[in-house]
Sequence to fold (196 residues):
Amino acid sequence: MFYLPPVEYFIQLNRHKANILIEREEHLIKQTYRNRAHIYSPDGMLALTVPLVKGSKVHTKMKDVKISYDFNWQRLHWMSLQNCYRRSAYFEFYEDDFARFYDRNFEYLFDYNEELLQLIIKLLKLKVDYKLTTEYQEVYPEMLDLRRAITPKKESDIDQKPYFQLFEERHGFLKNLSIVDLLFNHGPQAINYLTT
Fold:
């Protein structure tokens, strides 16, 4: 379960609409999208990272990883989203839906990410059916396993066609940003991009 997942995540969800299993029993893996998102700022790509409680990094199941509130990261993330997307065509349309995630404290990262995922699926009008794992399995022989496929450490294998991005005249098209980039720039038409 990712924080404000990248566009590729939703392309895959849309492709495999049914029979989706989301891992919640695996151990936290560092430097993944589980607590990180990339958005488009006037200066280029900007990483937003949800801080985790110390000790939640090694051998902690994803469902048990706690969010740290030692500093006001929610205010920083919300201000970044506002500063980067305020001028986009649909930010104001979705602003209230997302604002609540930066006003309320969630104890667990997985719960926070799942509520965000449910909201985004609803806003995209994406018809997907997913279930959560109840135990960890190394291999799922009957299923396509994408648990390690989408990562900020390597470029996406999916060929993403350019879509309008607010600051592309400065830095060109940046692929595989957070789904909020596509949603805030294209609103209800975002679903059409995910099907191509």
Summary: Strands lie at 20-22, 36-41, 44-49, 130-132.
